[in-house]
Amino acid sequence: MPQKSSACSQAVPSVSIQNADFDAAQEYAQLRDSGAGTGAIATFTGLVRDSGDRQGVTGLFLEHYPGMTEQVISDLIAQAGQRWDVRKARVIHRIGRLPLQSQIVFVGVCSAHRGDAFAACEFIMDALKTSAPFWKKELTDAGEHWVEQKASDVARAEGW
Question: Could you give the maximum distance between any two Cα atoms of the chain, in Å?
């Protein structure tokens, strides 16, 4: 995969940490407005599922370190822009109590070419899972517990 260095141009804040849900279609539309040189947009949206460390998950509760979280994710976007042709990038991560099937995270990347868009989007998501200061608690009918970082997530992030 070709690696390029380019500056990320951002028309909207590139990172949002929020309680409120987001509109993935609206986020896509804003990414699509990144200019005539954009030939590809890759997005990822993560959802709350009913299993994780334990079965019977009924929801999640997420916390973060305000200020630091946004800076870490902004740095990940900048790293992606140094490695690939990133025209525009957007990351939204939700916090607070989230029921099943809620959207948790959105990562979107614009590039001239699909390979750069796919790679940058996947890199940002993989690195976010291991680098950004989020804490996730799984909620179940039997109680709640904090989720530990998974070795598989660390291995994926280290693979970049």
Answer: 53
Kind plus residue range of the DSSP H or E element containing 73: helix 68-83
Kind and range of the H or E element at 115?
helix 114-131
Prediction pTM value: 0.89
Give the strand pairing for 15-18 and 57-64. unpaired
Strand partners, 43: 108
Helix or strand run (H / E) with residue 136: strand 134-140
* Residue 36, both tokens: 């005539």
Query: How many Cα neighbours within 13 Å face the side chain of 47?
Result: 6
- Cα 45 from Cα 115, distance rounded (Å): 19
Q: Is 100 helix (H, G, I), strand (E, B) or coil?
A: coil
Quote the CA–CA distance of 80 and 78 in Å, as a whole number.
5
The rounded distance, in Å, linking the Cα atoms of 21 and 40 is: 25
Tokens 């900048």 belong to which residue? 78
pLDDT, tens digit (0-9, with 9 covering 90-100), for 134-150 = 999 999 999 999 999 99
Question: pLDDT digits over 36-76, tens only?
Answer: 999 999 999 999 999 887 888 999 999 999 999 999 999 99
